[in-house]
Amino acid sequence: MTPRMVLEFCRMHGYGAAIVHNEAVIETLVGRPVLAFTVHAGHSYFYGNQHVAKMLQKRRTTAVTRLKKEQRASTTPIAAEWKPWCRELVPGHYAVPEESMPQERAWFLEQGKHPKVLLKSETCPRALLYTCMPKLKEAPGIVYIHALPAHSDAIEVWVAVEVGA
């Protein structure tokens, strides 16, 4: 049951309502008795005390604002500078076809190494990151393995034509 459904129930039965999210009242409805509840992590928690419910109902609603994620400048070099991956643990940026990412991850796991997996979607990795360990006689740094889409060559030509135009 969604908060909107509870609000409609209150409206149909003449009840009051107050919806609280992130410690701010986001919507109210005039009526008695008052159903006041907090929405947190996909769940609704109702207030049992009518005095508290009435106080929440009297609060002014606040505008819902989305928090902006601060973007950092990328340190990843352009794809043309990535080297082909040869399964050597030398820090740098490498590229492999997108469909071979599971095999590359399996290779790491067979070596007893556990790369960080960055996801493109719920099931598709977009990159593998492995931090080389000097104590394992590896050059210090990070190995970045990027997945290239199936038609990356055609995409690269298209981008060059569009940007060059």
What is the strand and helix layout of this fold?
Layout: H1 3-13, E1 16-21, E2 24-29, E3 34-40, E4 43-46, H2 50-58, E5 83-84, E6 92-97, H3 101-110, E7 116-119, E8 125-132, E9 141-148, H4 152-164
Parallel strand pairs: 1-3, 5-6, 6-9
Antiparallel strand pairs: 1-2, 3-4, 7-8, 8-9
As a percent range, the share of strand residues is 25-35%
Rounded mean pLDDT is 87
Give the termini separation. Answer: 53 Å
Describe the largest sheet.
5 strands, mixed
Alpha-beta content class: alpha/beta
Please identify, by name, the CATH architecture of the largest domain.
2-Layer Sandwich
Q: State the domain count.
A: 2
CATH class of the largest domain: Alpha Beta
**Count of DSSP strands:** 9
Low-confidence parts lasting 5 or more residues at pLDDT below 50? Answer: none
The rough form would be described as elongated
N to C succession of SSEs: HEEEEHEEHEEEH
Helix coverage percent:
25-40%
**Major sheet strand order:** 5-6-9-8-7
Tally of contiguous helical segments: 4
CATH topology (level 3) name of the largest domain: glyoxalase-related enzyme like fold
Rg, rounded, reads 27 Å
